[in-house]
């Protein structure tokens, strides 16, 4: 009995040591991945990296990880024109089935899902804010975006009719959708009226409707869904064979 108790104590101690070593190893790996991502993605701050699953050492010995979660506070994504970027906030990605290369210099996730957001101020950069003629004696331009409720965006349009600026901006409820996996489209549900003057739909939609391309997200993940929120549009992202590092 005494020998058995000694063996049990040894097993518990060794198990505890293994857990400690395993957790130290995963903490080190998380830091290395975070530093690599900061460098390869040119981030201004170090991202949050969490490697899930236990034991970590057994996973790494097999050349793959069950799940890696990444959080990036701010990410400068491209807009397709090569001139300006758009700021993506609170980008969170949950990556499954992460496989490593033989020398551990790169890693690829089989699947990835996540969320992010774009503030209305950022999205407003795409809208046509300068005053533009939309009909006989009528000029208009977008001056603000906000939450319209029920997943809609409220577009505030400032208009001048026959030389007189309307006392209040005209509010336009718009739907927001994802197009081609890399573009946010804002489209008016119904066209506004400016002083009762008849105008061509196409001319008015040049003001009320607009698109914002968002490309160059980490690892090649794409936009999946989008919905208007209180302070901006909430985005769902998705991808496969997503390059995590390297």
The description of the largest β-sheet is: 7 strands, antiparallel
Strand content: over 45%
* Overall pLDDT: 81
The structure class reads alpha+beta
Termini separation (Å)?
A: 54 Å
Q: Over all CA atoms, what is the radius of gyration?
A: 26 Å
Number of strand segments: 13
Q: In one word, what is the shape?
A: elongated
Helical percentage: 10-25%
Number of helices: 4
Walk me through this protein's architecture.
The chain has 246 residues and is of the alpha+beta class. Helix content is 24%, strand content 48%. It has 4 helices and 13 strands. The strands form 2 sheets. Strands 5, 6, 7, 8, 9, 10 and 11 form a 7-stranded antiparallel beta sheet that branches.
Kindly summarize this structure in a few lines.
The protein is of the alpha+beta class.
Topology readout:
Blueprint: H1 2-40, E1 48-52, H2 56-61, E2 64-78, E3 85-100, E4 107-119, H3 120-124, E5 132-135, E6 138-149, E7 152-161, E8 164-165, E9 170-179, E10 183-188, H4 201-208, E11 210-213, E12 222-228, E13 232-245
Antiparallel strand pairs: 1-2, 2-3, 3-4, 4-13, 5-6, 6-7, 7-8, 7-9, 9-10, 10-11, 12-13
List keywords for this structure.
disordered N terminus; six-stranded antiparallel β-sheet; 246 residues; alpha+beta; seven-stranded antiparallel β-sheet; 13 strands
